[in-house]
Automatic annotation (TrEMBL):
GO terms for molecular function: phosphotransferase activity, for other substituted phosphate groups. InterPro entries: Bact_transf, EPS_sugar_tfrase, Sugar_tfrase_EpsB_2. This is Sugar transferase, PEP-CTERM system associated/exopolysaccharide biosynthesis polyprenyl glycosylphosphotransferase. Its main location: membrane. Belongs to the bacterial sugar transferase family. One of its GO terms (cellular component) is membrane.
Length: 464
């Protein structure tokens, strides 16, 4: 994994981006030559003269594929799954290129040559991905891991890494430690007859994961781990492993001291200023881009259920301070009159027909741009919750208040990585992603979350 501003990017995904970047450049110039070369005469296309068009094309196509989630691990499946996301990416890329040609006539390419380039790129990307995604089955690029511990944390590691094939990590076995109760299958336990270094050499291990709860006393193999470290073997705490590989902080695997002594949690003036500028710019662009959609939404709500158009509700923000969030009304009038607040649920009978549509497409969240401009919210951050639920969750969920150390957001890491939460259990799962964001938030991560948000909206993921 590559670490960029505290956020981890898969080496495989980085390799894929680089390969497709080169591929798209090659397909661009090949398409130009196919369209304009006179095969009866010796001629060539100037590389430098078309470089602005080539750079624009590659940037647009890589961005379109990213917006369709093609660089996320769950999209790296089979040929059909690749094609399902690649075709809309090509359509989106063609539309954006056409718009750019209209806005910047100096870099215009004919639609005929653009279609040729698109077809070449389509087949090229399909070929590269079909070949590249066969590598794990041949054992190539695998990162081999040895786990110290056989208890509950080690078993959780097995459960969490079942779908990590494309991260190129392979657990070669689990080493018993101390008097831990065994919670992993016998088949994955390695006999501790030799030293850790001997096991590492035997299984070609690159990293050791510490998955034991008890780390005090003379039984902890500190000298053996130090020897491994001196030989270039990476030694990682299980909490850090989950943070790196899964993009969340497991509530059942980390120690409070790990949060205290670990990195992250940047609340500096520079970071706060950059985030505020980003909020204002992103909100302004979104307001202009979605104004027609919001006007249509207002009209539809009026036609179906009349006034009020907007819904104001108290939410908890930074430092526990409450504010009134603004949303398009998606439920029938007085949905919670004389009732305690309720979790949102699938097929909620309180939701209107228009409400179901705007929730699915996340249009109901757009008026929160006003909350961002008023500095009650950020564009990216944890989802703001109601005081009624916050009081309940603070008593049931450890460290829940940590998410209130930064401003809540319209979108966030938990919102794009986990389905809509509608219970205490869901809240615990989402909190693990919120903790990751609070610990590692940066402008780089905010941009990644925005890219994921577009994918969520386009594919209709997670709305209720």
């Amino acid at each position: 994994m590559l670490k960029i501003y505290n956020h981890y990017i898969s080496r495989f995904a980085a390799l894929l981006v680089c390969m497709e970047l080169l591929l798209l450049i090659a397909m661009f110039y090949l398409g130009i030559n196919i369209r304009f070369m006179d095969w009866n005469e010796s001629s060539s296309i100037s590389f430098l003269s078309l470089l602005p068009q080539a750079i624009t094309f590659v940037f647009v196509m890589i961005s379109s594929m990213a917006l369709m989630g093609m660089y996320q691990l769950d999209s790296q499946l089979d040929f059909k799954a690749i094609l399902f996301r690649l075709m809309p990416s090509m359509v989106l890329g063609f539309g954006l290129m056409t718009l750019i040609f209209y806005l910047i006539p100096e870099i215009y390419l004919g639609r005929g040559v653009l279609i040729i380039i698109m077809f070449l790129s389509l087949f090229g990307v399909l070929l590269v991905r079909s070949l590249l995604f066969k590598w794990p089955s041949m054992g190539m690029l695998q990162h081999r891991i040895l786990v110290l511990g056989i208890g509950g944390s080690a078993n959780e590691l097995i459960n969490q890494t079942k779908n990590m094939d494309y991260r190129k990590s392979k657990i070669v076995g689990f080493v018993p430690f101390y008097d831990e109760e065994r919670c992993v299958p016998d088949s994955v336990v390695l006999p501790k007859k030799d030293s850790l270094m001997a096991l590492i050499n035997q299984y070609s291990v690159a990293e050791i994961i510490i998955a034991t709860q008890e780390r005090r006393g003379g039984n902890f193999p500190i000298q053996e781990l130090l020897e491994c470290k001196m030989h270039g073997i990476k030694v990682t705490d299980i909490a850090a492993f989950f943070e790196r590989e899964q993009g969340h902080i497991r509530m059942d695997s980390f120690h409070p001291s790990w949060l205290i002594y670990g990195g992250g949690f940047d609340q500096s003036l520079l970071r706060s200023s950059i985030k505020r500028i980003f909020d204002l710019v992103a909100s302004g662009i979104l307001l202009i881009a979605t104004l027609p959609i919001m006007l249509v939404t207002i009209f539809c709500i009026l036609i179906e259920d009349g006034f009020p158009i907007f819904y104001r509700q108290e939410r908890v923000g930074k430092g526990g301070r409450t504010f009134m969030i603004l949303k398009f009304r998606s439920m029938s009038k007085n949905a919670e009159k004389d009732k305690d607040p309720q979790w949102a649920m699938a097929d909620d009978p309180r939701v209107t027909w228009v409400g179901r549509v705007i929730r699915k497409l996340r249009i109901d969240e757009l008026p929160q741009i006003v909350n961002v401009l008023e500095n009650d919210m950020s564009f990216v951050g944890p989802r703001p919750e109601r005081p009624y639920f916050v009081d309940i969750l603070c008593t049931k969920v450890p460290y829940y208040n940590i998410r209130h150390s930064i401003k809540p957001g319209i979108t966030g890491w938990a919102q794009v990585r986990y389905p809509y939460g509608a219970s205490v259990e869901d809240t615990i799962e989402k909190l693990q992603y919120d903790l990751y964001y609070v610990k590692n938030h940066s402008l780089f991560l905010d941009v990644i979350i925005l890219i994921h948000t577009v994918e969520v909206v386009i594919l209709g993921k997670g709305g209720r």
